[in-house]
Amino acid sequence: MRHKLKTISPYFEAVVSGDKTFEVRRNDRSFQKGDILELHHWLPTPERFTGDKTEVEVAYVFSNGDLQPLKEGFVVLGIKPVKVEGS
């Protein structure tokens, strides 16, 4: 499944550079391994999208059932760059 999500600075840039390989999100979309996250760069002030986006694939879902270190209803998503056909 594909999910379109807002991502603010500096987190957006860290995902694009490859430094950030995880997302912490409210699990209001029942994220699953193999899902594609379409991350859109969002500026909270003034509220607007920059037009920049990147796509990553969910490689792992760490949820509250896994040792319960998270606030209820949140997950940690292991992410990796989306492979582009032919590269």
How are the elements arranged and paired?
Elements lengths: L1 E6 L3 H7 L4 E5 L9 E8 L4 E15 L11 E8 L6
Parallel strand pairs: 1-3
Antiparallel strand pairs: 2-5, 3-4, 4-5
Give descriptors for this structure.
single chain, 5 strands, mainly beta
Structure notes:
This protein has 87 residues and is mostly beta strands. The protein has a single domain, classed as Hypothetical protein (Archaeosine Trna-guanine Transglycosylase, Chain: A, domain 4). Helix content is 8%, strand content 48%. It contains 1 helix and 5 strands. Strands 1-3-4-5-2 form a 5-stranded mixed beta sheet, with helices on one face. The longest helix has 7 residues. The mean pLDDT is 92.
